């Protein structure tokens, strides 16, 4: 339980109303109860919050309410992201190695780290302070895991994987699997050994059931602060910059380079050996077959600049009417009467 004034202080907000009111939870307006905090980005959302049982509302500057206590902030969503951990602190884990884990004597586990049941940790592995391996994690030889890392169950790290600090990887994800490399030789496909690794920098979060392949010779790299959604495939030697957003079911072919702050929406495919410039944006279900300049937004398959793609879609939607008019014109030109 926190007072409105305390919460406002934590997020740099301004209290409008009684700052001593107690807040016991957080909820959306349509299910809020007395004691709950909710948020409203628009006037229509504020009206819904005022009609609810919520006790207080996070709002942007300039909002007024005669019915609710307000906390005015610059951005209600950012403020909510800061408030939520106060009510829902991270799950705590007891430090130590579960007796059901198998740890090679040559591995180095920080005494403050947690190694859960059925984990297998190979020789040369280093696990940093306060990191948590929840269970059934396989950590390949010579992998390094930084401080405050969290690996959910069934995450696998192949050998030589490097994780920075505060990395979060969700259940079922595989880091460092073989890149898809083959050469055609005398009627069959000969496997090209993939001998590189994966390097993941600080503050990266990777969703469930994603797969990031190791480099063929060098490294596949995920830059600081990048967030990767569920079911994403990253091929060998892809290099992502800082603070990119990669949404669900995106696939990358090998050796493509993303600059900082690239955004790629769901179900897009990115061809290999391309460069996506800083703050490039790829719309959903796009097929990217060329380099994308910095700041450009592209859509469609093959991906084109957004305005061009939208004009093409509009033109395509008009084709049936255009064909009917063309047929009518042909009939008139042939001296017949159109239907």
CATH superfamily of the largest domain: Hexapeptide repeat proteins
CATH architecture of the largest domain: 3 Solenoid
Order of strands, main sheet, comes to 8-11-14-17-20-25-28-31-34-37-39-40
Identify the overall geometry: flat
Q: What's the β-strand tally? A: 40
| Number of H- or I-type helical stretches | 5
Integer count of domains: 3
CATH class of the largest domain: Mainly Beta
Measured as a percent range, the helix fraction is 10-25%
Uncertain ranges: none
Major sheet details? 12 strands, mixed
CATH topology label of the largest domain: UDP N-Acetylglucosamine Acyltransferase, domain 1
Q: What is the strand content?
A: 25-35%
Head-to-tail CA distance between termini: 74 Å
By secondary-structure content and strand pairing, the structural class works out as alpha/beta
Mean pLDDT: 95
List keywords for this structure.
flat, 5 helices, 3 domains, 17% helix, 30% strand, Udp-n-acetylmuramoylalanyl-d-glutamate--2,6- Diaminopimelate Ligase, Chain: A, domain 1, UDP N-Acetylglucosamine Acyltransferase, domain 1, alpha/beta, twelve-stranded mixed sheet, 339 residues, ten-stranded parallel sheet
Question: Summarize this, please?
Answer:
It contains five helices and 40 strands. With 339 residues, the chain is of the alpha/beta class. The N and C termini lie far apart (74 Å).
């Amino acid at each position: 339980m926190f007072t409105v004034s305390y919460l406002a202080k934590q997020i740099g907000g301004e209290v409008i109303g009684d700052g001593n009111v107690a807040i016991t939870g957080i909820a959306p307006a349509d299910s809020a109860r007395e004691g709950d905090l909710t948020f409203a980005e628009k006037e229509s959302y504020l009206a819904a919050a005022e009609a609810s049982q919520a006790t207080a509302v996070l709002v942007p500057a300039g909002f007024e309410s005669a019915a609710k206590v307000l906390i005015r902030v610059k951005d209600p969503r950012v403020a909510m992201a800061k408030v939520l951990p106060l009510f829902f602190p991270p799950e705590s884990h007891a430090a130590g190695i579960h007796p059901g884990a198998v740890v090679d004597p040559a591995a180095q586990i920080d005494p403050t780290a947690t190694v859960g049941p059925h984990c297998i940790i190979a020789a040369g592995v280093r696990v940093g302070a306060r990191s948590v391996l929840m269970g059934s994690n396989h950590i390949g030889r010579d992998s390094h895991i930084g401080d405050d890392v969290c690996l959910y169950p069934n995450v696998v790290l192949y050998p030589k994987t490097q994780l920075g600090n505060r990395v979060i990887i969700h259940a079922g994800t595989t880091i460092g699997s073989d890149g898809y490399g083959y050469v055609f030789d005398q009627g069959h496909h000969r496997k090209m050994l993939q001998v590189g690794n994966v390097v993941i920098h600080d503050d990266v979060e990777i969703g469930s059931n994603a797969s990031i392949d190791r480099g063929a010779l060098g490294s596949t790299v995920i830059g600081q602060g990048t967030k990767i959604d569920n079911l994403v495939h990253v091929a060998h030697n892809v290099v992502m910059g800082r603070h990119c957003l990669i949404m669900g079911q995106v696939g990358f072919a090998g050796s493509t380079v993303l600059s900082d702050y690239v955004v790629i929406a769901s179900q897009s495919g990115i061809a290999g050996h391309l460069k996506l410039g800083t703050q490039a944006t790829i719309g959903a279900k796009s097929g990217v077959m060329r380099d994308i300049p910095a700041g450009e937004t592209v859509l469609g398959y093959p991906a084109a600049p957004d305005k061009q793609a939208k004009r093409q879609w509009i033109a395509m939607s008009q084709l049936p009417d255009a064909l009917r008019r063309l047929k009518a014109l042909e009939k008139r030109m042939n001296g017949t009467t159109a239907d």
